[in-house]
What does this fold into?
Amino acid sequence: MKNLLFIMCLLTVGINLSAQVYKSNSCEITFFSEAPMENIDAVNKDGKALLNTKTNELVFVVTIIGFKFKKPLMEEHFNENYMESDKYKTAHFKGQVIGGVDYLKDGEYKVKAKGVLNIHGVDKEREISGIITIKNGTIELNSSFDVHLKDHKIKIPKMVIKNIAETVLVKIQASLLPKIN
It folds into this structure.
């Protein structure tokens, strides 16, 4: 009986240690830009995320070429003219979750993530608001925030500058599960 109790304790400790890191390989990242001629929006469902619940370290990575548009020509211009996705292949955020989150208790928590957002090869210190929802061992992350193109040296050609907004609304939705080694 003592051996069984000891093994149960070891298994519980092992589960808790491995559950400190949560991940997702299918984060949905969207952006929207309201423009006089035509609104611009795209979605990428292949974002990656890692969250260490012990240290609160949070990392997001998304491939630029993975954004899909309603119109192929918009996608081509986005990749070739604005984001230069052959040169700047990913955008990423690395930071810390700030706010009291009890990762072992179901609930909704308003948080901020403070760190560095890298888009178009340019780092920008950011503090981004979001919501973490804990439910049945899953961590849901949701956030929406503005990105100013000039902060990341994304240039808009002069002939279309009036047709493209200088600020883009980015939304992130991710479901993270315990990482299994």
